[in-house]
Task: inverse folding
């Protein structure tokens, strides 16, 4: 007898189709990264660190939600670090420091940028004689 219930609910509150695998209610239109094991996240973070080293320039392909600042399409940022979850922390041109989440946020590397040197101390300048 759900149709005429006291509170007007059409679906039982404990309907499994309304919850994700972690038991959190699903909200229509909400972006959420898929649940991953800690080992998977750590291994993925290593690959992301290789591709998005500090100093790499990134560009947003889709607007990001940030309550403090506008994050429009085309906004550029500089990678500061990649954490163990694989989130890419950036300094954005609008002053924000919002992290990118691969698989949730849509962005790309700026390919017009010069390649980032891994360590300037180890390399010696070429001298012409």
Result:
């Amino acid at each position: 007898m759900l149709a005429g219930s006291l509170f007007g609910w059409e679906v039982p509150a404990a309907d499994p189709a309304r919850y994700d695998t972690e038991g959190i209610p699903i909200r229509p239109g909400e972006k959420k990264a898929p649940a991953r094991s800690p080992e998977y996240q750590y291994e993925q973070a290593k690959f992301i660190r290789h591709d998005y080293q500090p100093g790499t320039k990134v560009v947003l392909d889709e607007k990001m939600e940030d309550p403090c600042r506008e994050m429009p399409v085309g906004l550029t940022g500089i990678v500061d670090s990649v954490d163990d979850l694989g989130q890419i922390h950036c300094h954005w041109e609008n002053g924000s420091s919002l992290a990118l989440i691969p698989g949730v946020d849509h962005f790309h590397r700026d390919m017009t940028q010069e390649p980032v040197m891994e360590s300037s101390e180890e390399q010696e300048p070429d001298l012409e004689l």
Remarks:
- The first helix runs from residue 38 to 51.
- The radius of gyration is 21 Å.
